[in-house]
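Ticket closed. Logging final result for Amidophosphoribosyltransferase.
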Amino acid sequence: MSERVTGVGEECGVFGIYDLDGNSVAETIYFGLEALQHRGQESCGIAVSDTEGPKGRVNSRKDLGLLRDVFRPATIEPLKGNIGIGHVRYATSGSTNVNNAQPLVLNYIKGSLALAHNGNLINALELREEMENTGAIFHTSIDSEVIAYCIARERVKAPDIETAVRKALLSVKGAYALVLMSPRKLIGVRDPYGLKPICLGKRDNAYILASESCALQSVNAEFIRDLEPGEILTISGDGQIHSDFLPKAPCPAHCIFEYIYFARLDSSIDGIPVYDARIRGGRALARNFPVEADLVVGVPDSGLAAAKGYSEESGIPFGMAFHKNSYVGRTFIKPTQKERESSVKIKLSVIGSVVKGKRIVLVDDSIVRGTTIANLIRMLKGCGALEVHVRISSPPFLYPCFFGTDVPSNKQLIASAHSTEEIREMIGADSLGYMPVEELQSMVGNLPICTGCFTSRYPMETPTEEIRDLLEQS
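Final structure:
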């Protein structure tokens, strides 16, 4: 498997809309997904249907690449329909190929079902094997198809789609935010732990579901609320919204990395603005790891707000030390170490006049393998920085994530085999401070959070070693 320069992979983004006035929605889905592009750049897709047209007819397009590469006016125009869903994918399970792109569209005895999924199941392999033994044929290697087949199987005997969804998800374990489209309904689901975000919005007479509130803003929709953990929210053609709930989890656990890294700065999740959470994280770093320095800088983009918080708490001026080349395509997958190192320089360059002769505090969201931060430190010192003190707005990654965050296996995590002092020496920093685990809660107030990748205290039972090996090979 190719390595990644930045280490931690984004998640996926989902978007759904039901225009009750019958207007075509494909273009709105495109712009909503564009606002979620940061959550996945490997593939994307849109599926739409006309609720007044032939029941079960779904028009869809999906492919590898960014939205701007996959969709053009000429490819969006044929996607006619007033209900639809969309997806941007970052592979956390399954390989990167067009078959694994979403939304998934199933045609079965009850009509059609389209599904888009953010998250990861921990019992997908068991469910898949069970269904294969009863004759199911899978066309992808992603766990999202397992969910779709579970729902389709239940729908054959259920009175309606929402009942089928609820019954199917009783057998599913893991993290998920789902948007589903049946011929006449749009459904959003959030896992009982609340690990993955999904929210509801409204524009005129259209209802929208999205992974982040920034996607609602991008299409001029009003934010209504976040879905609650375990909620199954159904939007019908008469404009009625109905909620059902899966059994409550014993301990809700929202992914803290949404606030540290994944979500866009202008999003708000579960009532907490992401920008404010990152400012608080930077302040906590400054309280725990003060240092004498001349300038605080952040690694674009996810380190900037935390750097601002560090500056505010410490009184050290905040500055911009890097220029980010916005026109470079995604470069994190590189086959050789030399290419991985050069890709960092292609994306980021140091503003020499800002750092020359100064003691720098460099704030970033994480250290996974250490490759990127070491390159940035060399670049800063090469441009005349006297000292570089690194502050990281997450604790050290010590354990894998099983819920949709692409944290590599333990043997690839630099912190699992080295002390903080050893890492400091390896990356060439003058000092190194990680966010203390106990300070994570200060970022989000009373919101219950998952810290499994830092502490190994997961909110649910995790896969066995045998299953973990199979997951890494898939």
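The CA atoms of residues 87 and 187 lie 15 Å apart. No further action required.
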